[in-house]
């Protein structure tokens, strides 16, 4: 003879429990002491059951959102830093900056880093992440009809100019419809602000004479002393920058 238990459920979910039993093959079975039987297990609420399903689903969704969000951010970041690079530019690579470095140097070209606006674009102050060097970044929209190769060649040629009274062109970057030129940073800005802006202190005669000497020295170098004759053709107060010691430095434009 086999002795066991069976149970069944209908449309409504139910639970069956065996809390104790007594059986004897010979004679009367021992009586059960109901006071010693364990209490019924706490029934799980439907809400707890739902949570057991919902929580893993939410976790999976959160994981997918994190993965796709990270992938989307990566694509956007790559798109933000994308540049134009062509094979012929390899010979100019030492003079080329990455857009990523210039973007970080200027904190994303924020307005607080804006030094001024010029006819061909805006100029931003920046700190290069690799060297902590301060630079001025001229961000220009270029739709020039001239060949870009010749254009960049002229930029690199200008980068070879070396004189203590010239603002040094450090390099360039190309990106989509933009050209970015990187110059030495001149902390005292342009001379015109000291001559025509009452908010700036007046320059002493010694400072003025020193600035004139510096500009004259730079023009002599460009017009007669460098290996090629370079005509400035745009000497004016706004194109004369002042370094930390108020030395006059000519800014040479390529446009």
Automatic annotation (TrEMBL):
Its main location: membrane. It is found in: Membrane. Keywords: ATP-binding, Glycoprotein, Kinase, Lectin, Membrane, Nucleotide-binding, Receptor, Serine/threonine-protein kinase, Signal, Transferase, Transmembrane, Transmembrane helix. Its EC number is 2.7.11.1. The chain crosses the membrane at residues 53-76. Gene3D superfamilies: 2.60.120.200, Phosphorylase Kinase, domain 1 (3.30.200.20), Transferase(Phosphotransferase) domain 1 (1.10.510.10). InterPro entries: ConA-like_dom_sf, Kinase-like_dom_sf, L-type_Lectin-RKs, Legume_lectin_dom, Prot_kinase_dom, Ser-Thr/Tyr_kinase_cat_dom, Ser/Thr_kinase_AS. It comes from the Eukaryota. Residues 109-255 form the Protein kinase domain. One of its GO terms (molecular function) is ATP binding. One of its GO terms (cellular component) is membrane. Pfam families: Lectin_legB, PK_Tyr_Ser-Thr. It catalyses: L-threonyl-[protein] + ATP = O-phospho-L-threonyl-[protein] + ADP + H(+); L-seryl-[protein] + ATP = O-phospho-L-seryl-[protein] + ADP + H(+). GO terms for biological process: defense response; response to other organism. It is a single-pass type I membrane protein. Signal peptide: none annotated. In the N-terminal section; belongs to the leguminous lectin family. In the C-terminal section; belongs to the protein kinase superfamily. Ser/Thr protein kinase family. This is non-specific serine/threonine protein kinase. It comes from Gossypium davidsonii.
């Amino acid at each position: 003879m086999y002795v066991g238990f069976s149970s069944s459920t209908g449309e409504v979910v139910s639970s069956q429990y065996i809390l104790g039993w007594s059986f004897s093959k010979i004679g009367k079975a021992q009586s059960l002491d109901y006071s010693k039987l364990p209490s019924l297990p706490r029934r799980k609420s439907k809400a707890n059951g739902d949570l057991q399903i919902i929580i893993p689903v939410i976790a999976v969704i959160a994981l997918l959102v994190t993965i796709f969000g990270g992938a989307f951010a990566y694509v956007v970041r790559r798109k933000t830093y994308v540049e134009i690079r062509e094979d012929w530019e390899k010979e100019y690579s030492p003079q080329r900056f990455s857009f990523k470095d210039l973007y970080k140097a200027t904190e994303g070209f924020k307005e607080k880093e804006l030094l001024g606006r010029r006819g061909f674009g805006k100029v931003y102050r920046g700190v290069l992440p690799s060297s902590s060097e301060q630079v001025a970044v001229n961000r220009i929209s270029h739709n020039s009809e001239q060949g870009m190769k010749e254009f960049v060649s002229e930029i690199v040629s200008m980068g070879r100019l070396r004189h203590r009274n010239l603002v040094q062109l450090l390099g360039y970057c190309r990106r989509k419809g933009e050209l970015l030129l990187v110059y030495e940073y001149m902390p005292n800005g342009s001379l015109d602000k000291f001559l025509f802006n009452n908010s700036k202190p007046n320059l002493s005669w010694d400072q003025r004479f020193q600035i004139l000497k510096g500009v004259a020295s730079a023009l002599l170098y460009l017009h007669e002393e460098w290996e090629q004759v370079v005509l400035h053709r745009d000497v004016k107060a706004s194109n004369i920058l002042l370094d930390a010691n108020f030395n006059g430095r000519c800014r040479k434009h390529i446009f």
